[in-house]
Write a structure and sequence with these properties.
2 copies of one chain form a homodimer. Chain A has 250 residues and is of the alpha/beta class. The first copy, chain A, has a single domain, classed as Rossmann fold. Chain A contains 10 helices and 5 strands; from the N terminus they run αβαβααβααβαααβα. Chain A has a 5-stranded parallel beta sheet, with helices on both faces. The first copy, chain A, is globular, with a radius of gyration of 19 Å. At the A-B interface, helix 1, helix 2 and strand 2 of A face helix 1, helix 2 and strand 2 of B.
């Protein structure tokens, strides 16, 4: 039985947290992140992999925009994993993922990830429980490999309520500047909410190497603030410094 | 004989252009670019390829930071082309370049590019004039292929003076936060300045498909302003609009 109960975890900010405070704090953190990313790149000792998962309309794209726009794009790479191509499907499920992992000095952001391979695939019965278990083991092994090669992994699950999701999906049908995001399948998937939650809980519980940050995501300002803060705290823990003069070709 | 004479093209802003004005204008343009990039991504009709070339320390990295940091990194990709790997060298010179071209909706920035294959290679006599001519033809053909597939190409040559370059290379040896950029070969390459200029002029003159923007680059604030402005003007010319509701899977 799942230990994580997403329904019991808040989807909104606590009542005493004020939007203006979070926004001001976020601005401060973004300025810090800009400097810290430069240092990460200059030092070239650590790689950072950020995995963002969440239901449709949980705000994954907006998060990327809010938090990573402040950093030099030369050191930041966002990869959105879509439905696999035939070539990708002809390989193991980690093949296309591994190809996009960050080299030292870089921050890579996965907008969806290898976790889809134990989520949407289970909801739609493309794999059975036994295969899901095998995949979770492979995921843990894979993440350990990355960690052992100086990669810091941060995982964020954007926890929105089903009501908030439905509200946002409706907006996509109504607001001209959001229509391009509308997908005819979104409502069908939304109807499978409880199934998705069950497999998300499984995936979260199945991670031995890197735990998930479960982010209340009904308010974008709170979500972005929490993610930026977690990233800043990780950066600070690395005790990075500028390297001295090196010899020979870079 | 070369038509372009880089020595006769300014490396600095005109005297009557004020730094504060350019900085204020740049901020305005960056806000516009953020919106325009979102529209480019949403519409998914055009791709944008930005090629940045210039001598060591001409400010290519800084330009990327100044101009593209304001856009959603999900729609922006920076690729720095370094010395080719053995695998890359075992292919034609455009192989590794072609692999990094933008899909529709995306902006890709090349920090150095296929032009290195008619620059550093000529300075160091790795190819002869005949091969350089063949490569320029291949480059024109390649760029035409991209243009015909809805790619807009912008090329910027960052025109700094030799004196300014030497000043910046010295800084790299003195300032701890710049030392990581220092490369023992930089001064040797700098001594070949006139040779580089000759081949740059050749490459600039040899482009039939897409002309170069030659950007006075001794002052970073002027350089970034001019590049941002050129990109904004290109965006505006595309007459983009948000698409309506689409059916089926995205």
């Amino acid at each position: 039985m799942a230990k994580t109960k997403l329904k019991k975890i808040p989807t909104a900010a606590p009542r005493d947290v004020r939007k203006e405070d979070c926004k001001r704090e976020l601005d401060k953190i973004l300025a810090e992140l800009d400097e810290l990313q430069n240092l990460l790149y200059a030092e070239g000792k650590h790689a950072i992999l950020i995995i963002i998962q969440g239901m449709d309309a949980s705000g994954k794209d907006g998060l990327t925009r809010d938090v990573f726009t402040s950093m030099n794009p030369q050191g930041v790479n966002v990869h959105s994993f879509k439905e696999p191509t035939p070539e990708e499907l002809a390989h193991d499920f980690l093949w296309r993922i591994h190809a996009q992992t960050p080299q030292k000095g870089m921050i890579h952001i996965f907008n969806r990830s290898h976790y889809e391979d134990v989520l949407v695939t289970r909801v739609h019965r493309m794999i059975d429980d036994k295969e899901a278990k095998r995949r979770m083991e492979a995921i843990n092994d894979f993440e350990r490999l990355l960690i052992n090669n100086h990669t810091q992994i941060l995982k964020f699950y954007l926890n929105i309520s089903h009501d908030e999701q439905l509200k946002r999906l409706e907006e996509r049908m109504e607001k001209p500047e959001k229509m391009w995001k509308y997908n005819a399948d979104d409502l069908q998937e939304s109807a499978l909410w409880d199934e998705y939650m069950k497999y998300y809980e499984d995936a979260i519980d199945g991670c031995n190497e890197v735990p998930w940050h479960i982010i209340p995501a009904d308010q974008n300002w709170y979500k972005s603030y929490l993610v930026a803060k977690a990233l800043r705290d990780l950066f600070k823990s690395l005790k990075m410094k500028f390297p001295g003069l090196k010899r020979g070709k870079s």
